[in-house]
Amino acid sequence: MSWVLPLAAMSEPYRKVLLVLISAVPPPRVLDAACALCGRLGAGLEIVALGEGLAPARLAGLAERPGVHACVCRAEAKPDWGVADLVEWANARACVATVVLPEADGEAAESELWRHLACPLVVVGTDPV
């Protein structure tokens, strides 16, 4: 089962940056990095929550934050998906420019399944450099 929250009133950009959330709401730094990447690539942001770690209300609230809402095309919950399902789905979509993953989702970030991703994987740390 999945649900989709449409957020863009204007036409959707063809290229997408997927922000993958697995365990919790990411720190603002991760959202800022994903939106900045969208701006540089001329892409829209698609937030995908895997598993049951993020309640639908929290996902909707995350997508509507100031600054994030301007670059978000949609937010989608995939409670019955794992990393392998997401990699297969992303590889089947030509519009996916890159996948962004918060460092906080460490165990999932270290999965060997990400090596099968056809686009770049960006892991964003929570601490400033």
How does the SSE layout of this entry go?
Layout (H helix, E strand, L loop, with lengths): L2 E4 L9 E6 L6 H14 L2 E7 L5 H8 L8 E7 L4 H9 L4 E7 L3 H4 L11 E4 L5
Parallel strand pairs: 2-3, 2-5, 3-4, 5-6
Antiparallel strand pairs: 1-4
Descriptive overview:
The protein is an alpha/beta fold and 129 residues long. The protein has a single domain (3-124), classed as HUPs (Rossmann fold). 27% of the residues lie in helices and 27% in strands. It is built from four helices and six strands, in the order E-E-H-E-H-E-H-E-H-E. It has helices spanning 28-41, 56-63, 83-91, 106-109; strands spanning 3-6, 16-21, 44-50, 72-78, 96-102, 121-124. It has a six-stranded mixed sheet, with helices on both faces. The chain is globular, with a radius of gyration of 13 Å. The termini are far apart. The model has no long low-confidence stretch (mean pLDDT 81).
